[in-house]
Specification:
This protein is α/β, with parallel strands linked by helices. Helix content is about 20%, strand content about 30%.
């Protein structure tokens, strides 16, 4: 069992996924047909032996309450483990800094039996053993460790994301990527530190500025504490706008990348439903796609993610689309580069084509 408190945090205003974010917090976004984004950090934590997890969130928390429930699906020790959803009080409907959320629960954090804290976001999907990372953190002598990934194309894909200035493994500062350079060290906004350092960071940030986020106080600490980088070796899928959400879903359709999420010894836990397998009529087919349980396919699906209970009509052609659960698509519809939210119906306007770099979004429950 890892000697760490797991904290799943929410994102600042640099992350905004048009349309989806109006209906639910980022943590509740559907992903790969059957998951929610919250499933990935929690699964990393519980698979790593972390059995005390706090989930901080803002916005409409109802989808998370329903999805997480008692948390038993995440394989947490029923006697000693605990998964707790902690909504943040929001004044005047604005996003408050994560430091304010942590401060509201400071007694629960201080009361944790664990020596270390692992803080992870919901908008980066990756597989990582946090127990191994804690051991690397201890061996390095760091006060704070930040998980990162060296990336190319930073001037296009990761504008507005957090990047690190590093000297070998030493972190010299955290900034927002302005797109000036092609290569960068991308911060995965995942932090490891002792609990007492985390508590002190909360107090220091509160005393410094009411607008400070955790990243801001850690950036200050780069001058006075040993802040070090740990490189993530595996694949990383960052979500910060609609295009990156669209791209992340479709990128994982690559068979080699999909294997990351099908490991017997590292399952991705989620809330399950008893439903029939996907049904294909004589005219239905799917190629290089992920089709979830309960779907009924009478048309052609290519390079797409299809959620639970989706109905694709006869003669319909679905290409490079992300379709969330319980969507109905009429006979003969042609959809390309489209993101369709839950419960939408495509019945009248049946020829909808976006661009790969500018997908069309159809809102939750819309009739098109």
């Amino acid at each position: 069992m890892a000697n760490a408190l797991g904290i799943v945090s929410y994102n600042d205003n640099n992350v905004y996924v048009e349309g989806l974010q109006e209906e639910r917090p980022i943590a509740a976004f559907n992903f790969l047909g059957r998951y929610r984004l919250i499933d990935f950090p929690i699964s990393n934590m519980t698979n790593s032996g972390i059995d005390e997890v706090q989930i901080y969130t803002t916005g409409n928390i109802r989808p998370l309450i329903k999805h997480i429930g008692s948390g038993r699906q995440y394989n947490v020790n029923s006697k000693h483990g605990d998964i707790r959803l902690l909504p943040t009080y929001v004044k005047n409907s604005r996003i408050v800094p994560d430091i304010e959320a942590f401060s509201q629960s400071i007694d629960e954090i201080e009361g944790s039996k664990n020596e270390y804290v692992v803080v992870a976001p919901v908008n980066y999907v990756y597989i990582a053993n946090y127990q191994d990372l804690i051991e690397q953190h201890i061996e390095s002598g760091a006060d704070i460790s930040i998980l990162c990934k060296k990336v190319t194309g930073a001037n296009e894909k990761y504008v507005g994301c957090q990047i690190l200035a590093t000297d070998k493994t030493d972190v010299k500062g955290i900034s927002i990527n302005d797109g000036a350079k092609k290569s960068a060290v991308l911060s995965l906004e995942t932090y490891i530190m002792k609990k007492d350092i985390f508590v002190q960071a909360i107090k220091d940030a509160k005393a410094t500025s009411s607008m400070y986020w955790l990243k801001d106080i850690i950036n200050d600490y780069c001058e006075t504490k040993a802040v070090k980088a740990i490189t993530q070796r595996g694949n990383v899928y960052g979500i910060h706008d609609l295009k990156s959400y669209f791209d992340a879903n479709l990128e994982i359709l690559d068979v080699a990348k999909m294997k990351d999420f099908a490991k017997v010894n590292w399952p991705i836990y989620t809330r399950t439903k008893d439903s029939a397998p996907a049904i294909y009529s004589k005219t239905g087919s799917a190629v290089t796609s992920l089709v979830s349980n309960g779907a009924k396919i009478s048309g052609t699906v290519k390079g797409s993610v299809v959620g639970r209970g989706v109905v694709v009509g006869k003669g319909a052609v679905i290409e490079n689309c992300v379709i969330m659960p319980e969507v109905e698509i009429a006979d003969g519809a042609v959809l390309k580069n489209v993101v369709i939210d839950k419960f939408a119906k495509i019945t009248k306007k049946t020829d909808i084509c976006g661009e790969a770099d500018a997908p069309v979004y159809i809102g939750r429950g819309e009739i098109v």
